[in-house]
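Figure caption, in words: inputs first, then the predicted bound structure.
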Amino acid sequence: MGKIRVGILGATGTVGQRFLQLLEHHPQFTVTALAASDRSQGKPYAAACVWRLPGAVPDAVRGLVVQAPEPPLDCDIVFSSLPSDIAGSVETRFARAGYRVVTNSSPHRMDDAVPLLIPEVNPGHLALLDACKGTGGGFIVANPNCSTVMIALALAPLAARFGVAAVAATTLQAISGAGYPGVASLDITDNVVPFIAEEEEKIERETRKILGFLDASRVTPATFAVSAQCHRVNVVDGHLAAVRVKLARAADPAELREAFAAFTGLPQELRLPSAPERPILVRDEPDRPQPRLDRDAGGGMSISVGRIARDGVLGHRFVALSHNTIRGAAGAAILNAELLLAKGYLEGP
Ligand code: NAP
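Bound structure (NAP present):
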């Protein structure tokens, strides 16, 4: 079987570049179409894009001419990393035109018909797409917000073993999470900014959808309360979350450690190309995880968890860390597409 042809919407951006880097040698997908704003349209990618990742622009896309993010594009599926103010309507038009849209942007994440997917955590939510399976019809699948993904991944084994009753998360988020050029250097140097627009609300609602239950044609969110406070810090890549959790039943911190360390899911069972061997790596050192040291664990697809301890207020606490443009964005979307392929959702009529 030939490779599946992929289009990238927002291809010149922070996440778009990461998509191209991660797809350069992908065994199942090949990039055949690129789209961005009118600033870039009509130019070969290498001329339109200021490449800001280590290494060079992948050879196969250097000469591809950047197009408008509108159907038709010469591809079978699209990955979307468009700004949220335009992503919603553009993605709807692609889905209506019959494209399978795998988005990293936020507008459709809470739609009833859209699985908000972490393949290790809630692969069953793909059943929301069963009506389209095999019809050749378009659909949208979303990955979560870049901080939600590590919080929900870390909570998944705790919810399964002990039940979760309440969660309070405080994030320290990297500058690249704001895209390029992101936060002005004079605002973030020697500083912490205790505000990221809509981030706290996204973590609170998305976590409950991901850990919710599929019934009939929608997901009923998990009932536990989630409280998030988000901060932008002077780190280039790697979001960190200090999490306090109230469990439904008593547990020793050693049991939490074992639940994190033993956790694996369907991507590992199916050996999907982007699946890390361990979705959650436990760090036992007292000063880990740290963004600079741990963000690239598992090729950026593992989250790292440490500082597991009892907490005087909610019962237990831990610190989680993940790479925001890999597990938090492009890598998450690619893993979603690999699961869609493995489960037959990318087949035609
Ligand atoms: P970015 O660096 O600002 O890149 C934005 C991309 O969208 C560029 O390719 C840009 O093209 C294109 N674009 C901007 N305005 C457009 C328009 N009017 N029409 C068509 N294309 C347009 O942003 P980013 O960080 O990659 O984020 C992209 C999306 O991913 C956002 O929705 C963001 O919330 C989400 N996200 C980001 C992260 C992260 O860690 N950065 C993580 C998770 C989710 P030009 O170069 O031509 O302007």
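The chain has two domains: 4-144+330-342, 146-323.
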